[in-house]
Specification:
By secondary structure, this protein is α+β, with helices and mostly antiparallel strands. 36% of the residues lie in helices and 12% in strands. The strands form five sheets. It has a six-stranded mixed β-sheet with strand order 4-3-5-12-6-15. Strands 10-7-11 form a three-stranded antiparallel β-sheet. The chain has a three-stranded antiparallel β-sheet with strand order 9-8-16. It starts with 26 loop residues before the first helix and ends with a helix.
């Protein structure tokens, strides 16, 4: 499950021969770690342990900044943290920043002049990389370390050539390592979950157009599908903060014009090779008018544009069920199948519906393979080589480190697949999950924090019995895979596409720093008011478009056009 911003929430991705590899790793990770020379504080030592991930005989402490994820009770005492220390002889000393204020907290930390060895799982954005890497040299260029000490990641870049371009800064250096998530279902991550029990109760068909969806939601509101004799049904609910693609309007908007999602607040997109913003197109206005109609008639829960994911989850946990549909990248993120299987089974994925053009479409997030900014080393670190080798372990193709980071202890969170067990794509499986996915606080894994490495060989190698009901709690990954293939991939938007990640020069970032904030704020305010206030859209559309130009949208697009051509058309 991908949970990026993102992160995106979200939730957000292993060959049969690997099955023979042991849980302690293989020679691919050991080749540069066991009995190899280690340089620490300008002193060369030799690590002699027979542990395949051993990095140093003299214990090294790395200071690391991480987000304080509510799903992790305590990084310092976490079972994965302790396992990694036992395997590598590297001790981690943690410093925390709030998950919802990573950028602000990181700016304060970098301004203080007191730097950790490692910045981990902070989604460091391109503008900070340009400032503190390219310009101020606070972040260490990793090119030489990658070449000399990171064979696993070097192989990753060879396997996915596009990644190098995405993570290379404008000065030609790599400052931040990415997570790599070859998540098939994440490529089409805006999804709508419909209460199929209610649909059957009311003898309705799955909607295929925006008008049919309107009629279904209206019936949910008026015809007591939960059968309690009260008009307490909420036809559609979403969340503005948290979750993964949990906000309501992008999925609905894409029936009118492709909406690149909650993390792209200026709605940057590509028409052919032309950088544009969908936020001032006529079809965008049509979409806002439709969403306003749903809101105005009480078919969208009014707090959907302000509430947090936890509040939506509480609504979905009510008995009897009061929710008719919700938006989310994965239902398993918002309805816990372990404690509320009955409700979880009620909601199934609805295919994108067609708008006025007669064509249903959904955004294709084809550049989400790599999520940059996950691992950086301070230029002042005395243990850069050890830090790089430690990071490289996460990219190992035996997936031992990843399974323990993500799934937990072997025998508790997962087990090796047995002969005959098959993965999602029908090939021999590599592992079997022993617990259904959930985001409740625990202390066994790092869940979605840190370097994720989920190539297709990992994601598709999860053992799911081929005959298993895809609505079963442990089959959530299969449900996402099957329905994405059948319902979403065929409807990928063609005329307008998601803007690829684009790196700006420091001076470009500086020029746009204020403009970007003002545009994001104005577009967001207009969107919400157009949906929630009667008459606002029609009375203000022309002035809104004019004000976008006054705020600098034209120049904003020009700079991104230049950056796009510099990065992708050479």
């Amino acid at each position: 499950m991908k949970l990026k911003k993102s992160r995106s929430n979200t939730v957000t991705i292993m060959l049969a021969a690997m099955l023979a590899m042991t849980a302690c790793g293989t020679s691919e990770n050991a080749s540069n770690n066991t009995n190899a020379e280690k340089t620490q504080n300008n002193t060369t030592v030799t690590a002699k342990s027979d542990k395949p991930y051993w990095l140093t005989d003299e214990k090294v402490t790395l200071k690391v900044v991480v987000p304080q994820d509510p799903a992790i009770i305590d990084f310092a005492t976490n079972n994965f943290t302790k396992w990694m220390e036992e395997q590598t002889n590297v001790h981690l000393e943690f410093q925390y920043v709030p998950t919802d204020k990573k950028k602000e907290s990181l700016n304060l930390l970098l301004a203080s002049g007191e730097f950790p060895d490692i910045f981990l799982g902070l989604d460091v954005p391109d503008d900070m990389e340009a400032t503190y890497g390219v310009s101020q040299k606070v972040f260490l260029p990793l090119n030489e370390l990658i070449e000399k000490h990171m064979p696993n990641f070097t192989q990753v870049m060879q396997d996915y050539p596009r990644i190098k371009g995405q993570i290379t800064a404008t000065d030609g250096n790599i400052y931040a390592l990415p997570s790599v998530n070859e998540c098939y279902h994440c490529t089409y991550q805006q999804r709508y979950w419909l209460n199929m029990d209610w649909l059957k109760t009311l003898n309705l068909k799955e909607p295929t157009t925006t008008e049919e969806l309107y009629q279904v939601l209206k019936a949910f509101k008026e015809k007591d599908p939960n059968g309690n004799g009260k008009q307490d049904e909420i036809p559609l609910v979403g969340a503005y903060e948290g979750g993964w693609n949990a906000n309501v309007d992008p999925w609905l908007m894409s029936a009118f014009i492709m909406d690149p999602g909650m993390y792209n607040k200026t709605k940057l997109a590509l028409k052919g090779e032309q950088v544009t913003s969908t936020a001032n197109e006529p079809e965008y206005k049509e979409g806002l008018a439709y969403i306003h109609k749903l809101y105005n008639e009480g078919l969208i829960y009014e707090a959907s544009f302000t509430q947090k994911q936890d509040q939506m989850k509480q609504m979905l946990a009510s008995e009897p069920t009061i929710v008719g549909s919700f938006t989310s990248g994965a239902s398993v993120i918002d309805v816990d199948p372990n404690t509320n299987e009955k409700t979880y089974r009620q909601f199934d994925m609805l295919a994108p519906v067609a708008g006025p053009s007669g064509t249903a479409s959904t955004p294709k997030f084809e550049y989400d393979l790599a999520q940059p900014g996950e691992f950086l080393i301070s230029a002042s670190s005395k243990h850069a080589e050890i830090a790089a080798k430690w990071a490289d372990l996460f990219y190992g193709k035996n997936f031992d480190v990843q399974l323990r980071r993500h799934k937990g202890s072997e025998g508790e969170g997962w087990r090796k697949a047995e002969a005959g067990e098959k993965g999602l794509d029908g090939r021999d499986a590599i592992f079997t999950p022993l617990k259904a996915y959930n985001t409740e606080a625990q202390n066994d894994t790092w869940i979605s924090v840190g370097i994720e490495y989920y190539p297709a060989d990992y994601r598709l190698a999860e053992n799911v019995p081929q005959e298993e009901d895809i609505m079963a709690p442990k089959a959530s990954e299969k449900l996402l895979y099957v329905h994405t293939k059948d319902k979403y991939e065929p409807k990928a938007s063609q005329s307008i596409k998601v803007m690829p990640p684009t790196k700006l020069l420091a001076e470009e970032n500086q020029e746009l720093s204020t403009v970007r904030v003002e545009l994001e704020k104005y577009i967001e305010e207009f969107r919400v008011r157009s949906i929630t206030e009667e008459g606002y859209l029609d009375n203000n559309w022309e002035s809104y478009r004019s004000n976008l130009d006054k705020l600098g949208l034209t120049r904003f697009l020009e700079i991104y056009q230049t950056a796009y051509e510099r990065q992708y058309k050479q």
